[in-house]
Automatic annotation (TrEMBL), chains A, B, C, D:
Protein name as catalogued: Chorismate synthase
Coiled-coil features, chain-numbered ranges: none
Pfam families for this protein: Chorismate_synt (PF01264)
GO biological process entries: amino acid biosynthetic process; aromatic amino acid family biosynthetic process; chorismate biosynthetic process
High-level lineage: Bacteria, Pseudomonadati, Pseudomonadota, Gammaproteobacteria, Oceanospirillales
Amino acid sequence: MSGNTFGKLFTVTTFGESHGPALGAIVDGCPPGLPLCEEDLQHDLDRRRPGSSRHTTQRQEADRVRILSGVFEGVTTGTAIGLVIENTDQRSKDYSKIKDRFRPAHADYTYHHKYGIRDYRGGGRSSARETAMRVAAGAIAKRYLATCGIRVRGYMSQLGPIAIEFRDWDAVEANPFFCPDPDRVPELEAYMDQLRRDQDSVGARISVVAEGVPPGLGEPVFDRLDAELAHGLMSINAVKGVEIGDGFASVAQRGSEHRDEMTPEGFLSNHAGGVLGGISSGQAIIAHLALKPTSSITTPGRSIDVEGQPVEVVTKGRHDPCVGIRATPIAEAMMALTLMDHLLRHRGQNQDVSVTTPRLP
Amino acid sequence: MSGNTFGKLFTVTTFGESHGPALGAIVDGCPPGLPLCEEDLQHDLDRRRPGSSRHTTQRQEADRVRILSGVFEGVTTGTAIGLVIENTDQRSKDYSKIKDRFRPAHADYTYHHKYGIRDYRGGGRSSARETAMRVAAGAIAKRYLATCGIRVRGYMSQLGPIAIEFRDWDAVEANPFFCPDPDRVPELEAYMDQLRRDQDSVGARISVVAEGVPPGLGEPVFDRLDAELAHGLMSINAVKGVEIGDGFASVAQRGSEHRDEMTPEGFLSNHAGGVLGGISSGQAIIAHLALKPTSSITTPGRSIDVEGQPVEVVTKGRHDPCVGIRATPIAEAMMALTLMDHLLRHRGQNQDVSVTTPRLP
Amino acid sequence: MSGNTFGKLFTVTTFGESHGPALGAIVDGCPPGLPLCEEDLQHDLDRRRPGSSRHTTQRQEADRVRILSGVFEGVTTGTAIGLVIENTDQRSKDYSKIKDRFRPAHADYTYHHKYGIRDYRGGGRSSARETAMRVAAGAIAKRYLATCGIRVRGYMSQLGPIAIEFRDWDAVEANPFFCPDPDRVPELEAYMDQLRRDQDSVGARISVVAEGVPPGLGEPVFDRLDAELAHGLMSINAVKGVEIGDGFASVAQRGSEHRDEMTPEGFLSNHAGGVLGGISSGQAIIAHLALKPTSSITTPGRSIDVEGQPVEVVTKGRHDPCVGIRATPIAEAMMALTLMDHLLRHRGQNQDVSVTTPRLP
Amino acid sequence: MSGNTFGKLFTVTTFGESHGPALGAIVDGCPPGLPLCEEDLQHDLDRRRPGSSRHTTQRQEADRVRILSGVFEGVTTGTAIGLVIENTDQRSKDYSKIKDRFRPAHADYTYHHKYGIRDYRGGGRSSARETAMRVAAGAIAKRYLATCGIRVRGYMSQLGPIAIEFRDWDAVEANPFFCPDPDRVPELEAYMDQLRRDQDSVGARISVVAEGVPPGLGEPVFDRLDAELAHGLMSINAVKGVEIGDGFASVAQRGSEHRDEMTPEGFLSNHAGGVLGGISSGQAIIAHLALKPTSSITTPGRSIDVEGQPVEVVTKGRHDPCVGIRATPIAEAMMALTLMDHLLRHRGQNQDVSVTTPRLP
């Protein structure tokens, strides 16, 4: 299929430009009988929503999602679920300036050469606004996974140079950074305020964890759970790196250190991040992603226009000085969508399998 | 599709277990008219082949590939290309010991719980032996890409704690480590010899570069070029992390530093690794992957058996103390397969596009 | 993928229930640069629209389609095209009666057993109303194909017992039956009027023709052009049979009669219907489909309720006494979508092919 | 995906040319734990095998299939199953004559224009020899379906002008025509002998029936069970038409006649052929297919060569005067593969569904 669909048995197909009339998605393959209403999707949409703190873009979008099909009398019917969000706060004039020039490190140049034409308003399809539909679709997956005892949560593990140790989940929802350590929040706010004064942007590292995942999810050899997870996470705007478990730290580790030993009481460690041979082990699935600093900054930059002439670009508009701040719900969504698809695929092929071997706690 | 197929328009489907009679693949969607013979695939197969130095497994496999279809009178016909490699050196007795026990950090435990049954000989389908077919299929993609001026090459950028700076491509092929700096080879050999004495294993970092890629490859939004590349690279055995361009270093970078500025003479840097908005920019595509240390070591480890009872596992057999050493050709193959698929997909949708805008050198 | 997507490179994914808030579709893979506006889709939607004559359901639907993405300044951008049609005339009360009973020969029984739940209002997802989005998507394909000199048209070749010879294309658009022979229209009207008095329904045979298709479209071996065409046409509600070219008449033919001989001036006949070995020959692609009589009739029928108890079912509501009458634009759409997908797929794999052999006129 | 794969969760990908070294297939997604050996596949292969009677091609092929992976200790492991059949009786010289000319009604002309190159030996990929792998893969599906109480069988329902009523299944296996009425066999033999004397060929009609299929298989809206069945059956060489249930006879039927009424004792008829709304109803799935007469006859025919010059073609070689005679096992295979894929897909999405409503016997 073309590029706007994710998943194979539980699929999500999205459409929508930053400044078009609306964003939308079709969620196909959702099991029947799941209680679902628009409010269920709104919670995560609000967590991702712009303008919720002074540290994110000031674009005001209500991001109210409508369910257009697939739900009857409050329950999913098993048929395709249509979702739509109308765009309300589009200031296209903001973008007229960059109509004929390529913003450095943006998709302007590549879309232009791929399609020979581009919707320059706010980046059109390449805008992070597209991720709103991922979050809406991911919320459906999350709800279903919850009925199977699977919980997907994420947090910010690094903001620019500031690394953050995980402390507790409650803290994550109590601040606009999804920071798991309440004591570090003031430091993050001070850093962001200075960054704004510097008219610059910065990157971030997000961590996502899925608990309660049964062993067995993931398909050898190309559709490994970690491979599809990497696919989903890397497809998020601005993501430049993905790690499973120890990730790049594994390079300098020795086998005797990295291997997660097992005892009847369970695994003694989780360097693998819950995936062995591309299949879930029953441990927590742990992934980390790196987001680059947004390129939409007001510090002038060198570029060219569509004629190939040199120009200086200053991105005014309304932008996130750190796209990573709003990325946590998006990363959760992609992990939830990946697990959902693999849960259904595993069931389809292996329904009869009943492994009597004791499973590790 | 199920899990053994990679790609959408140029697809590769593989089969084969470590100790089964043979490995095979079907390469579908290869354009007609490409000169191709078995020798063309053999070069990369030999680069990946075990037993080629004392630093890799001593299993002896000729890895002679046969082309069974899709090639007529020395040229591809456009129909499915069938490939097969017979397994010759299978010492199944080596593995009888671990028939009923799960080797730590191996896929034994997860395959057992997914399927309720597993081919325990050498890990069966989860063995890195499977990657031989990726390399064979990748060689076909490489040859076609070469006719389009695209070249894919890789090298080892870190062995355990030893980081290696790139020096030149010729050096890469002149040593068993794919080390790009001839002066560092003795150091690597000494490290590996000590590692063997320690009866341990270690991880590695591989870098892959594609040059000559035109701008425009990659499909928004889920099938971004970097997302599919991450999928392909993460699907390689033992890979725990993937980076595009600066990867995780982007986290601490500022936008003014990370953004690759453009002038009529070209890009001034390549922090992005040749991908913007998920689409190739015309710069070199750069990816890095982290491979974990193999878990097959002779140092005893704690585990359980299929009854859930505690056991001690010592992996004898013949194994790579560093699976990363042979991973370079595999990583090249996955990048070539990804680029090939996207080249055909881009053409299909955008054949009429002729962008007159000057493209950056 | 799940079941609501058609095509591989040019894909259409639809959603929507007969009495839900709206119908929608995402058309992915449309080449950039195609002039497109909502009016372009409306023409075919109006041809399919209910209530346009006394011989079809009296349900009144404006079927106004909105384009929500993928088109910028009147031209397609190459990104996903979102389409939506709001439902306006829903009289759900009509259906309350059959909430707990299965209408004979309807999908009520099968949806109930597949999903354990169903939207009983007008058949929900199983309603022919779903085909409106196929027609809208098909209109996009038709427009693109037209730029390649390909034209897709259909007509009614049989209504119940009345077989109709093709006479001319202009006649087809001049009557509500898509009848190609103006002299037969009064006969069809008289038949339909009597049918209504009999409170019964009847089947129909539709023929679809694509002219200007270049040789080479279709992928061996499973994705043959005729196989995918059969897939698309058989997926239309009420279709029970598909023929390519002579179809079932081929059974009694001899090879000397059926084979289409070739001369430098062209083919001497077209028994094959424009497809040889699953690949287009350059001749007109000809397909025929059989539509069963709708089961929604006011003549009482025996059935059971959800408790398995016997009931008598009389379908009131507003229904088409012959669903075939409105099927012509739908059949055209499915052929256009199939050709569009294969045109892009063929290009992707065979762009470089330039066959110098003279092609038959 | 490219064109050589069938199915989505249970997939079959094939390769191989008529006169290449071998044919092969990869069956992916087969559930683990199914007892399977090569003999299990051989039975159907022998039913399809050429040279088994004087009424089929005299090419001698043992068609011995080897299982190269996915089966361990006599049981499927859930991993990809690799299959291969070596070609043994290839008389390529037979074909040198038609190297530069297009046989009428063959794929020669279309392959030439699609790929610009073709393997002319026996039609290469377009040869019906390719169907051997469908039969081998179908046999795996049949075995699994049997464990679910599903049985797929076919028979010849018409040979040229001779229509055959079904009488009993035992008769089908007792003659080379798969004729269900033993009393008609002499008539068929006489007809075929005369046909050979006439140096001509003829078409046939095959019927396939699946019994024991539970209600619920099939995915709305494009992946309807009947639509995918039509896809699979139409993809068989020489097939020009597909019917489900009453098929084209439905055109002249009235709703009061066609609709299959239900009582607590079951359905009162099966005009629908076991599919309602694209989903299985629990009744027998019934499909019919029309095969055209083979074009490989020794009666001279007009054609052109690759230069576009007029030529006379006489197909010597060894051919089936009626390809329909060997088509029954192939049609069974395609129905089995379609049902298998939909069984797994249905399970994946609907595992939790437990419909308490009494299901019709």
